[in-house]
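stage 2 :: seqdesign
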């Protein structure tokens, strides 16, 4: 389908909050061994566990590269006891498995005739890696497979780079992001020479986000250069959970404290203050002498559950307890992510929600 010429927000579209009803969750089946060097063997089984927790409440849509990869994915899905009708497979060429960042951002238009569309940002592998040409076409391939309108995101004639993990929304007009990721003009530069005001206008026009809350830096080990989904997240329209580090000597302490201070001074789209809830950090997780971006903020909200990465850490239980008190309508479930985070991302990075049109 060809997209309308006006910007999505002017046509009534917005990026819905993650807790709003889903039609499906999208994943790309893991295949690039460089994502998990020397640890790739257990990763498909982690995917199987993720799919098993999602499937009771919504469809699971899995992107595979080939017939043989689909057969391998089906074996894992079957052995995890997932009903065959709950999983759909789409054959698209891909470079890597991080659908949150390379896939489309789904939009929704409310009203008497609700409708879903996609915002198709450009993907350039976090302005860091050479492999992205296949992934850059993933938004359009997904949109066309579903028969949706797709909006190619452009500003003054140029395509705009943005990854889904760099933003989080409350569905009512407020968006969380970081200066390190979207505004930096020296390291992993996504959009050279775009100003804060330019980006705010893009986020408003394409996602309906009229109120942008800018945090500073991301956590150590995050090779995306500051994705917000490792720092803080909306859990409802007025409540934000934000990571804080209790050890003043830890490398993350200062940046997380500065972000907390910014949130304390922030306002929502209606001028009110957000309620802030602290989320702990796990102890430093190091593999092959590399600090990994382990964070409980990288949880994923499904229709029936909240999937939370866990790290064999004493704070696992504390983080699960905090989120259980906030998500009283969903089961909060821990997913073992010690192997998964060696890929420098966990549950939220891998998934993307497709909103339900009719609710």
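stage 2 :: out
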């Amino acid at each position: 389908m060809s997209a309308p010429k006006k910007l999505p927000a002017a046509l009534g579209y917005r990026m819905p909050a993650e807790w709003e009803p889903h039609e499906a969750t999208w994943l790309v089946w893991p295949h690039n061994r460089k994502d998990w060097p020397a640890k790739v063997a257990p990763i498909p089984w982690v995917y199987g566990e993720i799919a098993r927790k999602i499937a009771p409440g919504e469809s699971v849509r899995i992107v595979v590269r080939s017939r043989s990869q689909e057969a391998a994915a089906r074996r894992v899905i079957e052995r995890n006891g997932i009903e065959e009708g709950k999983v759909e497979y789409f054959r698209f060429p891909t470079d890597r498995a991080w659908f949150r960042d390379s896939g489309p951002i789904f939009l929704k238009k409310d009203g008497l005739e609700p409708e879903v569309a996609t915002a198709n940002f450009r993907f350039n592998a976090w302005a860091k890696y050479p492999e992205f040409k296949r992934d850059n076409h993933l938004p359009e391939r997904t949109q066309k497979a579903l028969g949706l309108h797709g909006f190619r995101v452009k500003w003054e004639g140029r395509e705009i780079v943005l990854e889904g993990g760099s933003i989080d929304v409350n569905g009512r007009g407020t968006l969380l992001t970081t200066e390190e990721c979207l505004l930096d003009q020296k390291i992993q530069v996504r959009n050279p020479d775009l100003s804060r005001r330019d980006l705010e206008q893009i986020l408003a026009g394409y996602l309906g986000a009229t109120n942008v809350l800018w945090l500073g830096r991301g956590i150590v080990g995050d090779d995306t250069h500051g994705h917000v989904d490792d720092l803080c997240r909306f859990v409802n329209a007025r409540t934000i959970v934000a990571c804080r580090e209790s050890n003043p000597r830890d490398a993350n302490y200062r940046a997380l404290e500065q972000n907390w201070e910014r949130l304390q001074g922030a306002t929502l789209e209606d001028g009110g203050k957000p309620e802030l809830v602290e989320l702990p950090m796990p102890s430093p997780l190091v593999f092959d002498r590399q600090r990994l971006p382990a964070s409980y903020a990288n949880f994923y909200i499904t229709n029936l559950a909240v999937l939370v990465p866990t790290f064999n850490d004493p704070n696992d239980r504390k983080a699960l307890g905090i989120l259980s008190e906030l998500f009283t309508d969903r089961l909060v479930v821990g997913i073992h992510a010690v192997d998964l985070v060696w890929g420098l991302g966990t549950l939220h990075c891998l998934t993307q929600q497709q909103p339900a049109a009719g609710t």
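stage 3 :: structure notes
- The radius of gyration is 19 Å.
- The chain has one domain: 8-355.
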